[in-house]
Amino acid sequence: MTQTKAGPDIVAGRLPEDVYAENFSDLHPLLESHEAQVEADRCYFCYDAPCMQACPTSIDIPQFIRQISTGNPTGSAKTIFDQNILGGMCARVCPTETLCEQVCVREVAEGKPVKIGQLQRYATDHYMAENDTTPFTRGAATGKKVAVIGAGPAGLSCAHRLAVHGHDVSLFDAREKAGGLNEFGIASYKSVDNFAAREVEFILSIGGIELKTGMRLGENLELSELRASYDAVFLGIGLGGVNSLGVEGEDKSGSMDAVSYIADLRQAKDLSKLPVGRRVVVIGGGMTAVDIAVQTKLLGAEDVTIAYRRGQDRMNASEYEQHLAQTTGVKIMTWAQPKALVGANGAIAGIELERTQDQDGSFSGTGETITLPADMVFKAVGQTLVQTDLGGSLTLEKGRIVVGDDRQTSLADVWAGGDCIFGGEDLTVTAVEDGKIAAESINAALSA
C-alpha cells in the first residue's frame, strides 16, 4: 500500500482486490421470477390502497403487483412508467420503508410488508432488459422549445414528459455525464452495473431531447438568455454548494466533503485505488452521512463513527438506513456536535466534539467535550443552492426557489423542481414528481 499525502493514515488498497467487488455488490439482488410471483401473491390488492397514497408519484401499486402475479411483468412496468419514468432507479433507492411499505396493510397487521420496491425493480428491470425504448411515443411536434437545466431525476422526468407532448427539449447539465445524484450521489451498492447511465439512455430514447453536457448555469449558461431563446425553462439544478462545519481546523487536510467523495467513488473504475482513512468520522444524520460512512467501511476503514448533534430518533436517515450502517460496523454517536478539528502540520489527527442536550425544546452544548482520533472527517451536513447562478431574478425563501403547486416560479416562463425548490425533499422520487408536474404545467401554458 502506498501512503498518500492526504493524511497520516489515508491509503488505497486496504483490502484484497476480490473483496471490493463483494463489498460493493448489489444490496438487494433482483428477484427471480418465482420469488416475484410468490411475493406478489402476498398483496391484498387493496381498494383505495394506502401504499398508492403514500407514493409521491402515485403509481398504481396494487395494479402493477397484480400484473406481476398474473405473469405480465411487461404490463406491470408500463403501469409504473406511466407515473414514474425513473421507476427503475426509484425501486433501488427509494426509502420504501418510510413510504409505501410503511403503510402496507401487511406491515400494519404483521410487521412484514409486501416487498413493493423489489417487485417494482423486478418489473422495470424486466422491461428494460427486453426493450431499448420507453413505452411511450413522442407526440406530434408542436414547434415549441423548452430548456431543461439539470439532467438529474427532476430534469430527466420533465424532459421525457415534455417530449411525450411533442415539445423539443434542450437538456443541459454542468457535468460531462448526465444523471445527477443518481449517477454521482448515491451509494454504489444501491445502483450497480452502470444502471444510472443506462436509465438515462432509456429516457432519451423517446426522441426530441438534445443532451448538452458541460453547460453550467452562471458560467456558460445565463437564465436571461435561455428565457429569450426558449418558450419555457425548467430548473432542476439541485444544490451545488456544501454547508461547512464552521469550526476551527476545517481547512486541514483530511477534512472532506462527503458528496464529492461519493462522486469520486461512484466514478472510480478501480475501488482499490481510492484512498481511505483507517479512522473515519462523519458529521451529519441524513442519508448522505450513512452512505459515506458505510462506503468508507466497505473500502476498508477500520473505525467509522457517525456523530450527530441530536438523538437517533431525530436523524433524517431512515431506521432501515441506520440499521444498515450499524450492521456494517459503523458506530452512531448521538448528542455530539463538532467543535474543532485537531492535528498538526496541516493535517487532521482527530475531531473535538461537544456533548449536546435538549432541555424543554432548547438545544445547546453542555461544555463537556470528547476527542475522537480521525484520519478523515467527512462533512454531511446538507447542501445549499448556489444563488449567483440565478442572477437574482427569482423569488427565494431560506435559500431555495419558491414555486407554486404547479412548480411555476415567480417568473411566468420558468418552472423548477427537485432539491433546489423551497419545501422540496431530498428524494429521487419527489424530484421525479416535481419534473412531471412541471412538464404538465409547461405543456398547458404552451398549448394555451
Structure explained in plain terms:
This protein has 448 residues and is an alpha/beta fold. It folds into three domains: 10-25 and 242-379, FAD/NAD(P)-binding domain (3-Layer(bba) Sandwich); 33-130, Fumarate Reductase Iron-sulfur Protein, Chain B, domain 2 (Orthogonal Bundle); 145-240 and 385-447, FAD/NAD(P)-binding domain, CATH 3.50.50. The chain has helices at residues 17-23, 33-40, 50-54, 61-69, 73-83, 87-93, 105-110, 116-130, 153-164, 181-184, 195-204, 223-229, 258-267, 287-298, 319-327, 428-447; strands at residues 10-11, 145-149, 168-173, 209-213, 232-235, 241-242, 255-257, 276-277, 279-283, 303-307, 331-333, 336-344, 347-359, 362-373, 376-379, 383-384, 396-397, 400-401, 414-416. It has a five-stranded parallel β-sheet, sandwiched between helices. Helix 4 (61-69) packs across helix 8 (116-130). The termini are far apart.
Please summarize what this structure is.
The chain is an alpha/beta fold and 448 residues long. The protein has 16 helices and 19 strands.
Number of domains: 3
Poorly predicted runs of 5 or more residues: 1-7
How widely separated are the two ends? 65 Å
Strand arrangement within the widest β-sheet reads 4-3-2-5-19
Helix content: 25-40%
The radius of gyration over CA amounts to 23 Å
User: Which topology of the largest domain does CATH recognise?
Assistant: FAD/NAD(P)-binding domain
% residues in beta strands: 15-25%
> What's the story with the biggest beta sheet?
5 strands, parallel
CATH class of the largest domain: Alpha Beta
Mean pLDDT: 95
Please, how many helices?
16
Q: What is the correct CATH architecture of the largest domain?
A: 3-Layer(bba) Sandwich
Tell me the total number of β-strands: 19
Provide the CATH superfamily of the largest domain: FAD/NAD(P)-binding domain
Helix/strand structural class: alpha/beta
